[in-house]
Each structure stands twice: as structure tokens, then as C-alpha cells.
């Protein structure tokens, strides 16, 4: 049986067991992954020391390399972020910068290490900016070699102004639920295709 691995990077600014709305929405994706026999893990980035820089390893004290090993072994990468002033979090931005720093690494075929991996985005907040944040995340992943399936931006935003967050609501949002399903199933579908039919080498070897 084909086995897929999925990693979700939670860009919340909260630490440890502190409640994270982004993680709550990401867990709905995880539920589908588990049902479909996909190995999956959520990594809360704020619990690691991730050095600033554009390299795969910034040296002593940098804990990004242990996260990157899991990403390198994954077929699916989802980046989750809360919204702050209409933007993705600084933590999510840091992760994308570190991913960019590894984009010159190659897979066994000599392509970008991110080839044949699929990406997506999960966004939560009680302010506008979900589509803007998802656009930034998905473009960044595509630019460094990930493939983006259709409809892989699952998000929830509350009403304008201060108000309840995702975990405060006591009802299911049909739009958000549908996008969670599309994100999960479309990433699984495309990841399975790449397992059996990887992107050909012609025209995209990094050192050719």
C-alpha cells in the first residue's frame, strides 16, 4: 500500500500547549489524512529555536535542521498561520525563508529537493487577510519547487473588529469545512500521482 507523509508547520506565535486556532483548523486536515492512511504531524515552530538566515543549517543552536529532515521526507507540506495586521505571522515567514535557503539542495534525480512534493496553506484570524496570506505562502512554495494543487487554501476569519476566534465558535462554517476537505483530498491525490509518476528530469536539473 502506498504510504504518504504529511507535515504541517504551525506558524502560531503561541507556545507549548497554549491553545492555537491555527492548530485547531490544521487538526481537521489531519483527521482526513489519518482516515486516508497518511502519516501526519503538526510542528509548532515557536517551540523551536529557528535561526534567521538563508541556509539549510545556520550552525550551533539552530534547530531548523531537525525540522527540515522531516520536510525532506514528506510528500505533503502545509504551512499554517494566524493573521496579524492582515499578514501571515513572522514565524511562518521565517520558515519560508529557511525553506528558500534549502532550495539549492537536490533530490536523487538532481532536481530541487522540493520537486514531487505538494503544498498547501491553513489560515485563521478574526481580521481580513486570509487570501493575501495564502497567496504569499502558496506562491513561495511554488517558486522553490513545490506543486500546488487546486483549492488548497483552507481558512477561517471572524467578523471585522475584535471578536471570537476559531476555537470560540460553536458551529461549523460550511465554507471552511469544504475547503479543509478539498485541501486534504487534493494534496493526497497529487502526492500519489508523483509517487508513481515523478516530474521528468528534462529541463529542470539544478546543476545541468
Automatic annotation (TrEMBL):
Transmembrane segments: none
Xref: Gene3D superfamilies: 3.40.50.360
Location of the NADPH-dependent FMN reductase-like domain: 7-151
Keywords noted in UniProt: Flavoprotein, FMN
Pfam families referenced in this protein's UniProt entry, alphabetically: FMN_red
Signal peptide: none
Subunit record text: Homotetramer.
Name of the featured protein: FMN-dependent NADPH-azoreductase
Amino acid at each position: 500500500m502506498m504510504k504518504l507523509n504529511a507535515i504541517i508547520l504551525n506558524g502560531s506565535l503561541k507556545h507549548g500547549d497554549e491553545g492555537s486556532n491555527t492548530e485547531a483548523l490544521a487538526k481537521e486536515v489531519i483527521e482526513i489524512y489519518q482516515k486516508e492512511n497518511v502519516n501526519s504531524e503538526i510542528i509548532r515552530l515557536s517551540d523551536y529555536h529557528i535561526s534567521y538566515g538563508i541556509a539549510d543549517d545556520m550552525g550551533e543552536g539552530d534547530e531548523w535542521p531537525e525540522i527540515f529532515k522531516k520536510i525532506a521526507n514528506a510528500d505533503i507540506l502545509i504551512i499554517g498561520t494566524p493573521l496579524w495586521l492582515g499578514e501571515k505571522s513572522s514565524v511562518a515567514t521565517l520558515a519560508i525563508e529557511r525553506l528558500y535557503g534549502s532550495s539549492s539542495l537536490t533530490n536523487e534525480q538532481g532536481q530541487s529537493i522540493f520537486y514531487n512534493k505538494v503544498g498547501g496553506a491553513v489560515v485563521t484570524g478574526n481580521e481580513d487577510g486570509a487570501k493575501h496570506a495564502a497567496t504569499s505562502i502558496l506562491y513561495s512554495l511554488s517558486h522553490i519547487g513545490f506543486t500546488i494543487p487546486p483549492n488548497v487554501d483552507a481558512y477561517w476569519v471572524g467578523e471585522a473588529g475584535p471578536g471570537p476566534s476559531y476555537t470560540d465558535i460553536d458551529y461549523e462554517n460550511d465554507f471552511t469545512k469544504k475547503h479543509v476537505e478539498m485541501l486534504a483530498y487534493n494534496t493526497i491525490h497529487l502526492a500519489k500521482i508523483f509517487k508513481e509518476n515523478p516530474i521528468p528530469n528534462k529541463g529542470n536539473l539544478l546543476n545541468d
